[in-house]
Write a structure and sequence with these properties.
Elements lengths: L4 H11 L3 H5 L9 H11 L7 E5 L5 H6 L5 E6 L2 H10 L4 E4 L11 E7 L10 H11 E14 L2 H11 L10 E2 H10 L2 E10 L2 E8 L1
Parallel strand pairs: 1-2, 1-4, 2-3, 4-5, 5-6
Antiparallel strand pairs: 5-8, 7-8
C-alpha cells in the first residue's frame, strides 16, 4: 500500500536531522545515491546568473551541488523540519513549504530540479504535477528529475528481486516510457533519459 502525503511528511520530519548522514550509506533502491547526484551535475550544467527551484529540496545538498556562486536558489519541501535544516545549512536559499502541485511560489525559473522526490507523488497526480512544473519554467527553461526509475515493468520485478528485503512496497517508481509520455503531453520537448545508478535515472527536458 502506498504512503499517503501525510505519512510521507511525518517520515521526513523524523528523518530531517540525520538525513545527510543516513544517505552516505544508502542501500536498497537508493544505493549509489551520491554517485547519481554527482553524475546528474555533469549532465545538467547551470549557467551563470540563473534562477533555480529545487522541488523536494530536503537539506539542500543537490541544489548546493548544482549552483554556481551567483545562482539564486529557491527550494520547497513538504517537510517543515527539512526546510529548517536546509535554512541552517544554506541561509541564502529562499525556502518555503510546498509540493510539486502546490509550489507556493509566485515566480518563474531558468531551472527546476528534483532529486529522489518524484516517486513520492501519487501516480494519479503525476501528469498534473508535471504540468504545474512546466508553468514554473521560463521559456527555454530546463527541468531535471533525478529519481528511482525503471526501464520497464520487467525491470521493476528484477529490481524487486535483487533488492529483496530492502525493497519499499510503500513507494511507486516511474516507468521511463510512461514518464516520457506524460512529459510530452504537458508540453516538454528535447527529452532525454540518462541512467545514473543501478536503479536511478535522470531525465532532462526543456520548455520551448
Amino acid at each position: 500500500m502506498l504512503r499517503s502525503s501525510k505519512e510521507t511528511k511525518e517520515l521526513f520530519n523524523q528523518w530531517a536531522t540525520s538525513y545527510d548522514e543516513d544517505l552516505e550509506h544508502a542501500s536498497g533502491p537508493l544505493y549509489g545515491y551520491q554517485e547519481s547526484l554527482n553524475l546528474a551535475k555533469e549532465i545538467f550544467p547551470v549557467k551563470k546568473g540563473a534562477k533555480l527551484l529545487d522541488i523536494g529540496i530536503g537539506t539542500g545538498a543537490f541544489a548546493n551541488l548544482l549552483r554556481l556562486k551567483d545562482t539564486e536558489v529557491w527550494g520547497i519541501d513538504l517537510s517543515e523540519a527539512m526546510i529548517e535544516q536546509c535554512q541552517v545549512k544554506h541561509p541564502d536559499f529562499h525556502l518555503k513549504v510546498g509540493t510539486f502541485i502546490d509550489a507556493n511560489v509566485d515566480e518563474t525559473f531558468d531551472y527546476v530540479v528534483s532529486s529522489f522526490c518524484f516517486h513520492e507523488v501519487n501516480p494519479e497526480e503525476r501528469e498534473k504535477d508535471l504540468r504545474v512544473t512546466h508553468q514554473l519554467l521560463k521559456t527555454h527553461g530546463k527541468l531535471l528529475i533525478l529519481d528511482i526509475m525503471f526501464a520497464s515493468n520487467r525491470a521493476v520485478e528484477e529490481g524487486r528481486q535483487s533488492i529483496g528485503k530492502y525493497w519499499d512496497s510503500s513507494e511507486d517508481y516511474s516507468i521511463i516510457g510512461e514518464l516520457d509520455e506524460k512529459l510530452r503531453k504537458v508540453g516538454f520537448q528535447g527529452i532525454r533519459f540518462i541512467q545514473t545508478g543501478p536503479y536511478h535515472w535522470g531525465v532532462v527536458a526543456e520548455k520551448r
